[in-house]
Amino acid sequence: MKHFLYSLITILTLAACATAPNSRVDEVAEQVPKEWSASVSEAPIDHAWIDRFNDKTLESLVDEAIEHNFDLQAGAARIERAEAIARRTGADLQPQVEATLSGARNKQNFIGFPLGGDDGNVDSSNVASSLSNNFGTSVDVTWELDVWGRIRAGVSAAIADIQVAQADLLAAQTSLAAQVAKSWFALIEANEQANLAQATVEAFQSTENSIRSRFELGQGDESATAAQLRLAMSDTAGARADLEARREDVARTARQLEILLGRYPDGAIKGRRTLPDVPPQPPAGLPSELLMRRPDFMAAERAFAAAGQRTEEARKAFYPRFALTGTIGTQSEDLSEILNSDFGVWSLAGNILQPIYQGGRLRAERDVRIAEEKEDLAQYQEIILNGFNEVETALAIEQYLVRREAALADSADSAVEADEQAREEYANGIGDFLTVFATQNRRLTASSLLITARRLRLENRINLYLALGGDFRPKKS
Fold it and tell me: What is the pTM of this model?
C-alpha cells in the first residue's frame, strides 16, 4: 500500500503537466459478447477469494509469499523504474535552468610594437603585451514551448507505462496467490493419499496374516493356500512401495510450496489432513466488467493507450518547435565585482526549429510507432479472447468435475461395502481370497481417484476466480 500511494503521488505530480491516456476499451468492444456490457469497471481486484476456502493457514501462506517472493520484488522495482522514466520525460515540459560561474586570465602580445633595433630583430623584452581578467556569473534558461502537445504525449505514454507496471505487479500477486493455493491443496492431497496408502498397507497386512494363519493351521487346499499367501505377500509389498511413493510426493510438494513462500526448501511445512469444501459456484449472468478489471486486461489496455500516445508524439515531431532562451548575469574584470548589479548583462532570444530533411528518420520513427500500436492492439484483442475462453472453460469443466466426483463417491462407497463384505465372508469361510483381493484394490483405486477429483475441483474454482479478475461479486452500486 505504501508503494501504491507513492506511485499515485508520482502520477498526480506528472498530471500537473500531462494526464494519463484515455481508455481505449471501446476500440475492442466488438469482441465482447452482445449480452455482456463492455463498460470498464472501477471496482478494484478482490483478493478475498482466498477467504472462500475457510482456511486460515492458507491465508497466512499467501501473505507470506507476497511479502517474500523475489518475482514480486522485481515487479516493484519495475514500477520504480517506470516512475523515474516518467519524471525524466516530464522534465522536458519545464524550463531548463543552469547556473554558471566562470573565470579567465588572458595575455596578448603586440608584435612589432615598439620596433626593434637597426638589424630589424625584435627584442622580446620590449614586446608590448597586455594582461586581462574576465569573471562572470550567469543563469541560463531554456524552455521549449510545447505548442502542439508533442512532449505532453510522451509524458502521457510514460504515465501509462507506470499503470502497466502496476497492473503487471497486481497480476503477479494474484497469480502467486493462486499458485500458493494450488500447491497447498496439492500438499493436502498428497497427505491424504499417503494416509490412504498407510491404511491400505495395514489392510493388506491383515489379509496376509489371515491367510498365513490358515496356511499354518492346514485349513483348505495346501497348494491353493500357499499360492494365496504368496499373492497376499506380494500385495502387501506393493502397498508398502506405493506408500513410499506417496511419502515422496508429500516431500516434493512441500518443497515446491516452500520455494513459492521464499523459504529454504527443507520440506518442513506440513499440510492439513483433509481438503476443504469447494466454495459455492458463482451466480449466472455475470457482467463482462468483471473481466475488464483483470490485471492482464488492464495492463494490455494501458500498453495499447501508451502506444497511441507515442504514435501521436512521432507524428507531431514533424511540426515546428518553439523555444525561448534567456541569460542573466554579471561580467567584470575584477572578481570582487561579479556580484555587483552594475556589471549585469542579459539576453533574451526565441527560435523556431522546423525539420526539413533528416534522411527519412522522422518518417521511419512514425512508422515504427504505428506498427507498435498495431501490435499492442492485436495483443490486447488476443488477451481478451483468451480471458473469455478461460471463463467459459472453467464454467464448463465445473459440471463435468461435479458429476465425476459424485460418481467416484458412489464408487468408493460401494467399494468399501464390497471390501467389508468380502472380508467378513472370507473370515467365516464362505468367501474366496480372489474376491477379497479384487475388493481391496477396487477400494484403494476408487478412494484415491475421489481424493484427486476433489482437489481438481478446488483448482478449477481457483482458475475461475482468476478468470473473473478476482472474486465473482460485481461492485455494488
Answer: 0.76
